[in-house]
Amino acid sequence: MDFPFGQPTDAVVQVAYTVPDLAIGMRWWTDHLGVGPWFVNQRIGGEGSTYRGEPGKAEFTLALAFSGHMMIELVQTLDDEPSIYQDAYDRHGYGFHHVAKAVPNVREEVERREASGAMVRFHDVAPGGEVFFLDGGEDAPGMIELVQDSEITRQMFTSVWRASVDWDGSRPVRDFAELLPD
Fold first, then answer.
1. DSSP structure string for 37-70
2. C-beta neighbour count of 155 within 10 angstroms
3. Considering only CA atoms, which of 2, 34, 19, 3 is closest in space to residue 156?
4. What does the pLDDT profile of the chain (182 residues) look like in tens digits?
5. How many Cβ atoms from other residues are within 10 Å of residue 148's Cβ?
6. 24, 175 in Cβ contact below 8 A?
7. What is the dihedral of CA 145, 138, 56, 133, to 10 degrees?
């Protein structure tokens, strides 16, 4: 079965990059690749999140858009607190950070991966359920994000995709709140 936005349910649904400036990053993807519109969540992380098993302090802003059936996420850190994004920047600068999969039982999938040696580096609660970032292993190019596959998650991701279909370039930056259920 496929997600309503066209990806098979067992496929990677998102590729994410860290950027020093979200507005410049979105503009580059739009100007050079026609990606958009972008839905921006101004502040995530902080209270309620965990980083390496401890209460998280770092905060981020992010933007989501689709190119065809692949979701692109751009993330900018908002502070210098330790985080998975700061870790990646310290290792190799800005650029590719993670791939994401939406799974039916995110906690069960995390436990399965932990039993195989993976470690959770970041956890947070998002609209639609929990998200976990796991290290990808020694040879991995980045992290793996596991997202709870829920009706709300599907609705949000599908709304971002629908906005991209036949997008005419109007309103290239939009508020993430437009995606949330009433």
1. -EEEEEEEESTT-EETTEE---EEEEEEEEETTE
2. 15
3. 3
4. 588 998 988 899 999 999 999 999 999 999 999 999 999 999 999 999 999 999 999 999 999 999 999 999 999 999 999 999 999 999 899 999 999 999 999 999 999 999 999 999 999 999 889 999 999 888 889 999 999 999 999 999 999 999 999 999 999 999 999 998 77
5. 20
6. no
7. 10
